[in-house]
Design brief:
629 residues; mainly beta; Immunoglobulin-like; 3 domains; 3% helix; 40% strand
């Protein structure tokens, strides 16, 4: 028995029904498939093994149905599930477990397992999720319908249609396609109904989802025809989304309405080009914020914004050193569709379609040995916005990395940063059974010995509690996350214009600034100016100028143990989340004592804000509110 491949077109079935006589059929003229296609005068058949459970005898032209393979037949007023028994290599007569149908006209749908008949209409379905392998479709159920007319024969044709998608590219050359998603403004698959009310011609109506998903197990090369089964009709706003190796994604939108008839196909040719939004076009950074869905990329070989500091690092990473990208952690909702990829010097990704979810990803570029070369914070939140104050300055409306502005909701606080470092310390917001709120790290490491610049870049999620030095025979624990021989080398980590401690410095973003492009960690001057505006108490936070909310997000204490999330000078009650907030600025505060590494910071408490130095140590982690350049 030879396999009948997939879509069944005008191959006439000579089967016996009450009122329908058997007739001998001429041999079916089957053309040699070209690129998996067979073209007939009446339509198109894709080369799709397993799409139905039938086979065809090429010599006689008769369709052979497998044992107990049901066909649903109706005379227009009642229906019965009929079976064909295969025997002796020829088609056998139909029989029914119920009483035989009577009448002059009959209508049939195959397969009956997913079909029903009510009020003169067949109901069936087209799979929304389809599978493609080499040579065509694998297992699938694609409905066929037939009418027994004056010639007393049942001629099965497809209830569905085909989209033949032929993507071409030079940009994505060498990459395979692993899944295809087709969507439109109209229903494409799922539940369908087939009516013969209009002169015996079957009319197919679809009320299912507006998309079809096709997966390719082994991957498909570009220029390979890709077939998708859809309901017949006219489609507006049709989109074809290709997901490729490494998480790369491309979406093509048809410029015109795409119409496809039952049992026929429509070809969609397009060239896949790079249509990603370059997040680093105006300025590269260590954080990129996403406020709407789309396809994005950013430069992977630039460290931060490429402006060096006293650390002496080169501004760029050779693109040839980068092997792939690695995700350290995700937080919040999943907003990336298909993952991240590295190609042609850029990290690329696409968001899920529809409303943009709120979430965070920390990822890095790694070399062939898996060593992290640089890392980035990708921040997805459609509610990110600027707030313009009465003095003309503009600030982000929420903390860096926050999921929302309001206090007492998961993610209100954003992330915590050790002074001078670019990477966020992942945190969790949890109630501890009382009115107090505490934080504890998901991924955090505390150490007294390995807080070097090199290790901080290789391990962006580590929290370094300090290090030990010996002065005049006495050993000290230094509350700084990075060791230096000279106490001058730490001034310009976040601002290239800082040459000493104190407030005098114009903004000058460096490669370690954690803010997105177009924003920077505020200077002490900018914090001082902020504190001169009106202040008021909000719900567990301070409101500046009646517009800008600073939640009481506390801070993580320096040291090698986590303990509470407060400083060392005030009481625990004053420093818990909901009581006081601490915010970084670019300026260090030098007491003249090498054992005390401290920084200036903004504080918020009881509806007021202010600034101070000498208390917050550089190993302590605080939140960041970015100011617009």
């Amino acid at each position: 028995m030879r396999s009948f491949n997939g879509f069944c077109f005008t191959i006439t079935v000579a089967i016996l029904l009450t009122g329908c006589s058997r007739q001998e059929q001429a041999p079916v003229q089957v053309q040699v498939p070209a690129e998996g296609e067979e073209v007939y005068d009446s339509g198109f058949k894709a080369y799709m093994p397993g799409a139905s459970r039938t086979s065809v005898d090429i010599a006689t032209g008769r369709v052979l149905w497998d044992d107990d393979d049901p066909i649903m037949v109706s005379n227009g007023s009642e229906s019965s599930t009929l079976y064909v028994k295969q025997g002796g290599g020829t088609s056998s007569e139909l029989y029914s477990q119920d009483k035989p149908l009577s009448g002059e006209a009959f209508y049939a749908v195959y397969p009956a397992a997913s079909a029903s008949w009510s009020e003169g209409v067949f109901h069936s379905s087209i799979p929304v999720n389809q599978v493609y392998t080499e040579g065509g479709f694998a297992s699938g159920v694609f409905p066929m319908v037939a009418e027994c007319g004056a010639d007393r024969e049942l001629a099965f044709k497809n209830a569905a249609s085909l989209l033949k998608i032929v993507p071409q590219t030079e940009f994505f050359a060498g990459m395979n396609i692993y899944s295809v998603s087709v969507s439109a403004n109209e229903s494409m698959a799922g539940d369908i109904s087939v009516s013969y009310a209009q002169g015996g011609v079957p009319v197919v109506t679809c009320t299912g989802p507006r998309n079809v998903a096709l997966s390719a197990f082994s991957g498909l090369e570009f220029d390979t025809p890709i077939y998708v089964v859809v309901a017949p009709g006219k489609y507006t706003g049709l989109k074809v989304s290709l997901s490729m190796s490494g998480g790369a994604k491309y979406t093509y939108t048809a410029p015109d309405t795409v119409a496809v008839d039952r049992s026929k196909y429509q070809t969609i040719n397009f060239t896949a080009v790079d249509n990603s939004v370059d997040l680093s076009a105006s300025q590269s950074a260590n954080c990129y914020m996403i406020t709407e869905p789309g396809s994005y990329k950013f430069k992977a070989n630039v460290k931060g914004n490429g402006v060096t500091t006293s650390c002496g690092l080169p501004a760029n990473t050779p693109a040839t050193d980068i092997s792939s990208v690695k995700v350290y952690y995700t937080d919040g909702e999943t907003f990336v569709d298909g993952g991240f990829s590295y190609m042609n010097g850029y990290v690329r990704f696409s968001t899920v379609e529809g409303t943009l979810p709120v979430g965070t990803v920390l990822l890095s570029a790694v070399n062939s040995a898996g060593t992290t070369l640089w890392s980035w914070h990708i921040w997805s939140n459609p509610d990110i916005a600027d707030v313009e104050l009465s003095d003309g300055s503009k600030w982000l409306n929420m903390n860096l990395g926050a999921h929302q502005v309001a206090f007492n909701s998961a993610g209100f606080n954003g992330y915590y940063y050790q002074w001078g470092r670019k990477d966020p310390i992942q945190q969790e917001f949890t109630p501890n059974g009382t009115s107090e709120m505490i934080h504890s790290p998901f991924v955090s490491h505390a150490s007294l010995i390995d807080g070097s610049l090199e290790n901080s870049m290789k391990n962006p999620t580590y929290f370094y509690g300090g290090y030990k030095i010996t002065i005049d025979g006495t050993q000290y624990n230094i509350p700084d996350w990075c060791t230096f021989d000279d106490d001058v080398k730490y001034y310009d980590w976040w601002n290239k214009n800082i040459t000493s401690d104190g407030p005098d410095a114009e903004p000058g973003k460096t490669m370690f600034d954690p803010c997105p492009p177009g924003y920077h960690v505020p200077t002490l001057n900018e914090i001082q100016a902020l504190c001169t505006l009106g202040k008021a108490a909000g719900t567990q936070g301070a409101i500046v100028d009646g517009k800008l909310f600073f939640p009481y997000a506390s801070s993580r204490a320096a040291g090698i143990t986590v303990k509470h999330w407060g400083g060392t000078a005030e009481s625990d009650t004053d420093n818990t989340v909901g009581e006081r907030g601490f915010y970084h600025c670019t300026n260090p505060y030098n007491t003249g004592n090498n054992q005390t590494r401290t920084v200036y910071r903004l504080w918020a408490r009881k509806g007021n804000i202010g600034y101070a130095g000498s208390i917050i140590q550089r190993a302590q982690a605080m939140t960041v509110r970015c100011k617009k350049d």
